[in-house]
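So, can you check this one?
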Amino acid sequence: MRRGAFAVTLIGLMLLAGCLGPSTASWGDGNNAVTVNFDRASTSFTSTLGPQTESMDGLQAVGCTPGEEDLGIDKTQAIQFTGYLAASQMYASHTDQVKSIGLSVTASAAIQSMPFKQANEMIEGEGPRVDLKNWNDPLNPQTGSGTVDLDEIDADEDSRWYILGLIPTTEHIQDGMLSLGEWHQAVTVKGYLVASNTSNAYGYHSIQTVRDDCTLDVGNQNREQLFVMVTGLELDGASVTSSGDADDEWVHGDVAFLGRTGFVMMFFVVGLGGAVAAFILSKMFVMKGARDTMKVLLGQVGIDHVKKVKQDVKKAKAAGMVSPTERRAEQRGPPKKQSQKKSESSGALAGFDFDSALADDGDSAPMKTSGGGSSVVVTEAAMEMENTVAQQHSEDSSQGNVWDAPSRISSTPTSVVTQPSQSKPKEHFTSVAPIRSSTPEPKPKAAPKKRAVRKRKATVAQHEEPEVQEQPAPQKETFQDEEEFSDFSF
């Protein structure tokens, strides 16, 4: 997983190589910034690249005149430093070792002196390769093993070199110095040297001379270490100017031929489009491999049967058929509640209707469910009706089912009153209400009264009518313990 993420990150950085660059100092008055007021007669700068803010003024620019070797502050033409860019260093800050004018340097470059065309035709790998270790001092790089050791160049060296500390003269030049972050390219730096009151000052103008085209000559030591106030840069197919108005002005993040906008569009088209195309192709290959494997395992006849089954399944689903799996899922799922139309002729027994049981009324609020697995709900109205019918039955039974028990000859005549048998068990109403006719139902007839049978010489037992209770509890048929019956004949 980590290797995959690293590979994706590396590819993304390669694609965005034209939009990324080294960090450098900013232009202005903030931290890690520099500001230069360029004037050939008197140049000043303010830098916050060091431990503390540093300012200098009164710097004089040294130029040239085409066709003359000598340089001077009265010359108006900028000096050129042309060759092959072998190494460079961008500065966002400086160490304590850098002093005075060195704090205004925002970039350093090591350029092998040669004509621009020769440098542009040099094949990658054939030019000088510099192993850069440390470049804290803008004019004194520390290098290691390589084809060229810059800090060891002397009169015996075959090549000639410019070691330049570059001071930007405008904000556009400061932004354009990022173009020097790409090594191994042809470049021409245009600018002015810094005049010094003392001869042979380190990095200042001394005894240097130029050619007819104002290109600086390299001295006998094959190395020139100089501060340069840069006014322009020339690259292969691009340039950097003080005003930033050139037709071929170099812009950070620009890509040759395509430009920044074209590069971003190419990234989306080639990158994302290629990823989608690769996914589609890989899926096609996987499906083709699966089909080939199926042909080997099932044969052509088996594949034809599979296709026929798929067609039958589609036709069955279109016809509304349900598969056994779906049927079992429906059976295991919770039962669906089906609403029934409320009967208009429900009358007084509306509480037993299923819709009435579910209705949110005070008289028909569901109280309890009947036993068993049915979903019948007994409402309060149904319970009151049931209690009324039970009271009527108990009242009629208590009046008719009284008889005089025969008295024994040897005992005092007594009467035995029997309790009525237990009323009928409560019937449960089903969820479907019975169909009722439009004619009113006849009232239920009271149970016929039984005549009391008298024994000879038997006294009529006087009994009192039992009080009607609201909810009579059923009782088992018992006899009084005081009486004993030996003769039950009537």
Notes: The helical segments are 2-15, 116-120, 171-176, 259-319, 324-332, 354-358, 380-400. The chain has a mean pLDDT of 76.
